[in-house]
Amino acid sequence: MHGGRLHRLVVGIALVLPAGAVAEEVRLSTPTGALHGMLDLPDGRCAPCPVMVVIAGSGPTDRDGNQPALAGDSLKHLGHALAQRGIAALRYDKRGVGTSRVAVTRESDLRLEHYVGDAAAWIARLRGDARFSRVGVIGHSEGSLIAMLAAKRERVDVFVSIAGPGRPAAAVVRGQLQSLPPALRARGEAIVDELVAAPWPMPPAHWRRCSVRACKGT
């Protein structure tokens, strides 16, 4: 084989199976179905070692950091890089995404609170694993908010925010609405106004009412 082609082949294999790291499939049971993830472990150096829970951003983003129309393996590369440096990383498919798709029946039933509860459950599971000395969280975008809230439920030793929100959620959403046609923007802003004025924690009946408004556009 030509030397240049062989070099590219070796580099490609290294990106998929990095030296100094091993992968372990993991599963977390929930009342609505199992969540699935991947532990990137330092090869032979986790006795014990720190571990980070990596939480993906919004939308159908999987454990690797990919969406159906957007693939870059950003979170996979992050997990591998941590493992190569002696830090384990748990990357998981959120409920309703990838191998955790069966953990939700209808997307309209999902709330941020569900994602927060799942992240907290993963943290608790790793906290009870004798292989790990410390447990931290890394959240990207919306995953940063989820990580913050999960860290209030379960103790973490380290918190890392990647492109996390620096403004109130309502301000972020209002900014995103500005690109919509005037009628849709006004409809969206009315829903945001209702959510901001709602009591907190929000009663389930109010969740349903806001969901109907969002879906029907009333």
CATH architecture of the largest domain: 3-Layer(aba) Sandwich
Strand order of the largest sheet: 1-2-4-3-5-6
What is the tally of beta strands?
6
The biggest beta sheet is recorded as: 6 strands, mixed
CATH topology of the largest domain: Rossmann fold
Number of domains: 2
**Which H/E pattern describes the elements?**
HEEEHEHEHEHHH
Which CATH class of the largest domain applies here?
A: Alpha Beta
What is the H level of CATH, i.e. the homologous superfamily of the largest domain?
Answer: Alpha/Beta hydrolase fold, catalytic domain
What kind of assembly state do the chains in view correspond to? single chain
Per DSSP, the total helix count is 7
Describe it for me?
- This protein is an alpha/beta fold.
- The protein has two domains: 16-166, Alpha/Beta hydrolase fold, catalytic domain (Rossmann fold, 3-Layer(aba) Sandwich), CATH 3.40.50; 168-218.
- The chain contains seven helices and six strands.
- The chain has helices spanning 3-16, 74-84, 112-127, 142-153, 169-177, 182-197, 204-216; strands spanning 21-28, 35-42, 49-55, 88-92, 132-140, 158-162.
- Strands 1-2-4-3-5-6 form a six-stranded mixed β-sheet, sandwiched between helices.
- Helix 2 (74-84) links the parallel strand 3 (49-55) and strand 4 (88-92).
- Helix 3 crosses helix 4 and helix 5 (169-177) packs antiparallel against helix 6.
- The termini are far apart.
- Residues 1-15 and 212-218 have low confidence and may be disordered.
